[in-house]
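Re: beginner question about structure tokens

> Can someone show what the tokenized structure looks like for a real chain? I only ever see the sequence side.

Sure, here's an example I had lying around. Input first:
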Amino acid sequence: MRRHALAWWLAGTLLAIGIAASWTVGWRLSRGEQWPIPAARAPAQDLRLRTSDGLSIAATYRPGRSPAGPAVLLLHAKGQSRASMAARAEWLSSLGYASLAIDFRGHGESDLATRTNGYREARDAQAALAWLKERQNGAPVAVLGISLGGAASLIGEAGLLPADALILQAVYPDLRSAIRNRIAQRLPAPLPTILEPMLSLQTLIRIGIAPSRLSPRDGLSRFKGPVLVMGSTGDESTTAAETRALFAALRGDRSLWLVDAGDHAAMCDLDDGLYRAVIASFLRRTIGVPDVRPAEE
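And the corresponding structure tokens:
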């Protein structure tokens, strides 16, 4: 009897320690932060946007060749900011496309808020897309969403982001797989399977939804416009098989680009010549070629 009691006590203690540790890890992963971003240089301009729930979001707009020309909304990865999109924005400007890059809530210079793997960040993306559409007089707008940014285009409570085209770069298929993959890179089996629910089920308490609700793959299956899915064969956080599963969820105008770009962080940062050529071709085909006239005409 004493041995059984001791075994139950040890099991209960270990479980309590595991829950406490996982809660602490979850808190750290979802905690928002702020940091300064270098001011934009003309012709780019910094601005603030207001979301549907009243948060102030920092953004940088860069004009294209025409005030009514096609544009691209740039949505960064978790832990990054609009500063990580600056080189892409300058490149897009050289092609004639206008762009808007934002700091998600809990990132950069935007208001502090809990990070929610794209669910509430979708409100930031919605506000940004609406502003950019109005600024460009209703011209087509494509979204380039990297990791968190791509998820925010697909899983918001208001539904899919009403973009004219999507470019999804290193986007996780569903939250539970994303968490399991990241644990598996650090701990041996069967710990990823055991520990994943302790982290993923925290969404029920932290943001009031089940982890199954955080599934970009499910959201993507309902998107009707053209989509370019991009991933790295060396990414163990969002694997090549999972990138192919995202692609397979599409029904319609779809393109897949898999490249050996290294791990997840490297894939999020990818911005070389071939990458730009693939994106430029997709943009020309889907949202059009910017007017050849200078913007001031």
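Each token stands for a local structural state, so reading them left to right follows the chain. Residues 43-174+214-286 form a domain with the Rossmann fold fold (CATH 3.40.50.1820).
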